Amino acid sequence: MFFERPNTGERAVLVHLDMYDDAEREDPTEFQELVTSAGATPVALVTGSRDTPNPKFFAGSGKVEEIRAAVLAHEAEVVLFNHALSPAQERNLERELQCRVLDRTGLILDIFAQRARTHEGKLQVELAQLEHMSTRLVRGWTHLERQKGGIGLRGPGETQLETDRRLLRERIKYIHKRLEKVRKQRDQGRRARRRADVPSVSLVGYTNAGKSTLFNAIANAQVYAANQLFATLDPTLRRILLPDVGPVVLADTVGFIRHLPHKLVESFRATLQETVEATLLLHVVDAASTEREQNLEAVNLVLTEIGATEVPTLMIYNKVDLLTQVEPHIDRDENGKPKAVWVSAQQRLGLDLLQQAIAELLSEDLLHDTLALKPQEGGLRAQLYAQGAVLQESWDEEGNTLLEVRLSTADFLQMLRRNQIPAERFGLRQQTETCEPWRASLEFCE
To answer: Could you say which of 278, 298, 412, 417 would form a disulfide bridge with 258 (CB–CB 3.0 to 4.6 Å)?
Structure first.
């Protein structure tokens, strides 16, 4: 029902009104990209401005007449508003325009329905569709009366509208149960990665910022990437190897957008949990976009809504090839830590700098030192070799083994505990506060 779409584009009249309230203002260019991504064919754009929305039609009566004239002139099949409409406004507009009317939320949901590929993705989209539709059912059933009684005609005693709402509630309840099962499965996978000491890196950013292209470049993957809004809907995970870090799980997630419908965020809670529990976020930004700062703000609002503001973040300014006099480079803070990387995923420029920055942030606890091991500590020596951490070996006059090692401090502390060797002997402390959040389940954390 939700995922079948006609092959040919529908003729659409677009409506965009400039609101004087900056919080309610939308971008007309982005709106046209949304319409194109949905597969519709824009035939006319009706613009205007208002102080406040009209309670009955959102637009004024004169503007509604202008929209109706455009619908008749172009034989349009649907009118798309670049705003959130109430159910009553949609019904009133459809009655006046004699064609389907869809608001910005419905348009985004339609795009998501087209992009969903996995079973989980379809469940999440269907949940958002049903919850959005539940307030608009009266539009389709105003012609039906209460079911009549009599022999062969007795019904449940409720209107068709009430029946459909009850069926919708039952379907929504069923999907919630299925998605809860998906959430538990994802939690189990994350716990397994934490036990295996595998950090996770999640790509986030505004839609069409180049996340999937960057994901493919880093992970040598074949994730669908296109120059359109919401090209990626279903999350994708890949395991990659980074120098000095080892295996890392890289996650590509759905893009964000300004005024992303709250119900959509709720429906995709299981998917967005990958972002909340990541070790590091890569916030991908279209560096060449004229709306760069507004897009940054929109993404930060969604990250705040899902509770991901505490996760360490590395800014990735993508599409540097479209800028003049800007070369790929790393921006660092006052402590020398990477805070932003300028790259071009499509041209594969600066990817080595990106991997370097990720490795630096994930291996802040890296131990690179020369250890003096006593003769009776051969077990520790063997484990260091098995870990591939030994760079050079020599001996001193007292018969101690001198090993130049390079490995995670957390791994080394774990080896010391296994061999019952005090960490203080090597100038290390074995306390909870030294543990990164994603290492909290490891045995050396008290």
So the answer is: 298
Q: What's the burial of 184, exposed, middle or buried (CB within 10 Å: 0-12/13-18/19+)?
A: exposed
Rounded CA gap, 115 and 122, in Å? 9
Q: Report pLDDT digits (tens) over 266-292.
A: 666 666 777 888 889 999 999 998 888
Residues 430, 413 contacting (CB under 8 angstroms): yes
By the 8 A CB rule, do 325 and 319 touch?
Answer: no
Q: Are the C-beta atoms of 13 and 43 separated by less than 8 Å?
A: yes
Rounded average pLDDT over 126-142: 68
Tell me how far apart the alpha carbons of residues 245 and 84 are, in angstroms, rounded to a whole number.
46
Q: How many angstroms separate the CA atoms of 134 and 197, rounded?
A: 44
Q: Which residues of 418-430 are buried (b: 16+ CB within 10 A; e: fewer)?
A: eeebebeebebeb
Residue 228 contacts residue 199 (beta carbons within 8 Å):
no
**Average pLDDT value for residue range 286-311:** 87
> Residue 444 pLDDT more than 60?
no
Q: In this structure, is the dihedral angle defined by the CA atoms of residues 168, 171, 173 and 175, taken in order, positive or negative?
A: negative
b/e string for 58-87 if b means 16 or more Cβ within 10 A? bbeeebbebbbebbeeeebbbbbbbbbbeb
Mean pLDDT for the chain overall: 78
- Burial of residue 197 (CB within 10 Å: 0-12, 13-18, 19+) is middle
Other C-beta atoms lying within 10 Å of the C-beta of residue 26: 19
pLDDT higher than 80, residue 170: yes
- 137-155 pLDDT per residue, tens: 654 444 444 444 445 544 5
Q: Count the residues in the chain.
A: 446
* Residue 154 CB burial class (10 angstroms; 0-12, 13-18, ≥19): exposed
**Alpha helices by DSSP H, 84-159:** 87-97, 104-115, 119-133, 138-141
Q: At 178, list the tokens.
A: 């299925």
pTM of the model: 0.69
Whether the Cβ atoms of residue 286 and residue 309 lie closer than 8 Å to each other = no
Q: For residue range 42-69, list pLDDT tens digits in order.
A: 999 999 888 888 899 998 889 999 999 9
DSSP type of residue 349: B
| Integer angstrom CA distances of residue 361 from 245, 315, 339, 408, 412 | 10, 12, 9, 12, 18
What's the rounded Cα separation, in Å, for the pair 297 and 229? 18
What share of the chain has pLDDT > 70, as a percent?
78
User: What's the angle, vertex CA 159, arms to CA 156 and CA 164, rounded to 5?
Assistant: 90
